Amino acid sequence: MLTRRTPKSPDAVQWDPRKGIAEKSRVDGLDAIVNVAGAPIADRPWTKARRKELWESRVDATAVLGSALASLPTPPRVWVGAGGLGRFGDCGAEVVDDDHAPGTGFLADLSVAWEGAHERAASSLGARWVVLRKGIVLAANGGAFPLMLTPFRFGLGGWLGDGQQYTAWISLRDAARAYVFALSEPALTGGVNATVPDPAQNKEWSRALGRALHRPVLTHAPKWALRGALGELADDLFLASTRAVPRRLLSAGFTFEDVDAESTFRGLLAE
Fold first, then answer.
1. Closest C-alpha among 136, 142, 140 to residue 237
2. Residue 89 backbone dihedrals phi, psi, to 5 degrees
3. Is the pLDDT of residue 54 over 90?
4. Looking at the 3D structure of the chain, how many domains does it have?
5. CATH of the domain at 90
6. What pLDDT band is residue 147 in, cutting at 50, 70 and 90?
7. Is the pLDDT assigned to residue 169 strictly greater than 90?
8. How many CB atoms lie within 10 A of CB 197?
9. Concatenated DSSP letters of 224-238
10. Measured distance CA(156)–CA(2) in Å, rounded
11. DSSP H or E segment with residue 128
12. Which H or E run includes 213?
C-alpha cells in the first residue's frame, strides 16, 4: 500500500504526490496498481484554492505516480484508477452509457483530465487500464450516507432542487467488487461507468431513505439555497442529472449485489 503518511506497517510504502515514491524498489514487480488518490470533492465550496487542490491531488498526482512506476525494471501490467460520473455534466433524462460525450464545467473538465492522466500513466507502463467512474458511494461509516441521516432522522430530510434529476450511486460493497473485477477481467479496458444499472430520480431516491428510516419526506432543499451555500458545486454535483448505465461492466459479466436503494439503505442502517 502506498501512503502519504509515515508507514505504520511493513506492507506500506511512503509516497509524495509531488515527488513520487520514496523506496521504489519495494514496489518493483507488482502485478497491478489501484489509484484512488484524490481530495474529497464535496466537503467544501470550490474556491480558487480548493479547485487547485482538487486538480493537483488527482491529475498531477496521477502523473507523478505513473512516472515513478514507469522507471521500475518491472512495472505493473494493470492500472485501475478512480474516476467520476461528473465528466458527463447535466444530461437530464437522457441515458448515459460509457461512450457518452463529456459535459462542460469544472467537474466535467476535472474528470476528463483525471481520466486522461490515468490513461497516459498506464500507457507509459505498457499496462491495461480501467477507470471506474463512480457517483455517490454509499457506505455505513463514511462518505455521503452518514451526512444524509441527520436531517432525515429529524424529519427534515428531502430531495434536492426539484428532485427530477437522476442520482447515480453504488454501494461500497459493489464498488470494492468492481475494483477487484477490473483487476482480474482482461477484456475490460478504458473508462467504465460504475453505478447501479437503473438510477432513480432524486425525489424517489430520497423517499427510499425516508421509508428505510420510517420518516416522512415532505420537503426539499431549494436550488437557490443550495447555490447560495455551495456555488458551482451545487449545480455540478447535487443538481446535475446523470442517468448513467454501466454497459461495459455488465457486458463483461459483472453483477451488482445492491441495486435497490431502499434495501441498500436498510442494510447500511443495520451496519
1. 136
2. 70, -160
3. yes
4. 1
5. 3.40.50.720
6. confident
7. yes
8. 13
9. HHHHHHHTHHIIIII
10. 41
11. strand 128-134
12. helix 202-213
Cα 17–chain centre separation: 19
- Which cell is 70 given? 514507469
Q: pTM of the full predicted structure?
A: 0.93
Residue 25, C-alpha cell as written in the block: 524498489
Residue 252 contacts residue 190 (beta carbons within 8 Å)? no
Strands 166-167 and 200-201: antiparallel
How many whole angstroms separate alpha carbon 235 and alpha carbon 219? 19
Answer whether 135's CB lies under 8 Å from 242's CB. yes
Closest CA to 162 of 118, 101, 248, 225: 225
Q: Give the position of cell 477484456.
A: 187
Domain that holds residue 176: 2-270
**Cell numbers placing 154:** 429529524
Instruction: Choose the weakest-confidence range: 74-78, 234-238, 243-247.
Output: 234-238
Among candidates 114, 117, 154, 162, which has minimal Cα distance to 134?
A: 114
**Cα angle: 213, vertex 218, 219; to 5 degrees:** 110
Give the CA diameter of the chain. Answer: 60
